Amino acid sequence: MGPTWKDLAGSKVTLGDGTKLTADDDYLARSILDPKGQVVDGYAGIMPTYQLTDAQVADVVAYLRQLSVHTRADDLATTTVPATTTSPDRTSSTAPPTAG
C-alpha cells in the first residue's frame, strides 16, 4: 500500500534517497505520470503507470488539492483545470475522479 492522498498536496515529503520536498502540483503530476521516479521513503515503488492526458492529470491534481489541509481555498481557485473532461469510456464529466 502507498501513502494516503489525504493531506498530501502541499505537504512536505521525504523521498527514498533522503531528498525532502514539497508535494506541489509539479511533483504530484510527475508522480502520477512516472510513479517510480520519486518514491516516498518507506514505500515500495509499486504504483502502476497510467497513460493519462494532461487534462486528466490536472483533474487528479485538483482532486488531491481538495483533499488536503495544506492547500488554501484561494489556491484551488487558481488551479487551471478544464471545465469538462472525457473519461476513458468517452462520457463527459465535470466532477473530479474518485479514489478507490
List the helices and strands and how they pair.
Elements: E1 12-14, E2 20-22, H1 25-33, H2 54-66, H3 73-78, E3 85-86, E4 92-93
Antiparallel strand pairs: 1-2, 3-4
Account of the 3D structure:
The longest helix is centred in the middle third of the chain and has 13 residues, at 54-66. By secondary structure, the protein is of the alpha+beta class. It has a single domain (12-81), classed as Cytochrome Bc1 Complex, Chain D, domain 2, CATH 1.10.760. Strands 1-2 form a two-stranded antiparallel sheet. It has helices spanning 25-33, 54-66, 73-78, and strands at 12-14, 20-22, 85-86, 92-93. 28% of the residues lie in helices and 10% in strands. Helix 1 (25-33) crosses helix 2. It contains three helices and four strands, in the order E-E-H-H-H-E-E. The model is unreliable at 76-100 (pLDDT under 50).
Radius of gyration, in angstroms, nearest whole number: 14 Å
CATH topology: Cytochrome Bc1 Complex, Chain D, domain 2
- Specify the helix fraction band: 25-40%
* Count of structural domains: 1
- For the terminal residues, how far apart are their CA atoms? 13 Å
Biggest sheet, open or closed, and with what strands and sense? Answer: 2 strands, antiparallel
Q: What coarse outline follows from CA principal-axis ratios?
A: globular
- Averaged pLDDT: 76
Multimeric status of the protein: single chain
Beta strand count: 4
